[in-house]
Amino acid sequence: MKLFCLSAAIAFFAVTSASAEQLPAPEGEVLLTVSGAIENETADGVVSLDLAQLQALPEQVFTTSTIWTETPVVFTGVSLRDVLDHAGVEATKIKAVALNDYIVEIPLDGVSDQAPIIAYLMDGEQMSPRDKGPLWIVYPYDADPDYRTEVVYSRSIWQLNRIVAVK
């Protein structure tokens, strides 16, 4: 019986570890860490991403008005969906966390390939923490009235630096 249990444990470990992927470690300053219910990792059970790694994912660009800016802004970034897929997120929601530990929950059933994005440029410039950076979850608010609600605005977290995937 002990041999059977040991064999079953080895088989389980082989199957579960085969699906996980070791991702390259960031070479620059880490801007975003993804943890929680994830399959992949860069090290220590998390996915850490620098600007170059974010920029290596498919780029999304749109111009939109926001309730926080005086004029429409061009946002450049990566879709939240692509970041979650890159990390191998297996969850129903995420907790997005800002530099000041402010947290918002975003259910994943409302995340598409196009929206929201994690913006790393605003009008072609990197954002400092004073300008809502270095990362900001934004939606194309002008593209759809469904993006102009209090709920969506509340999910538009700036100074993003961590994502925790929750089952």
Automatic annotation (TrEMBL):
Keyword terms of this UniProt record: Signal
Cleaved signal peptide residues: 1-20
Domain Oxidoreductase molybdopterin-binding: 73-140
Official protein name in the record: Oxidoreductase
Record organism: Sulfitobacter mediterraneus
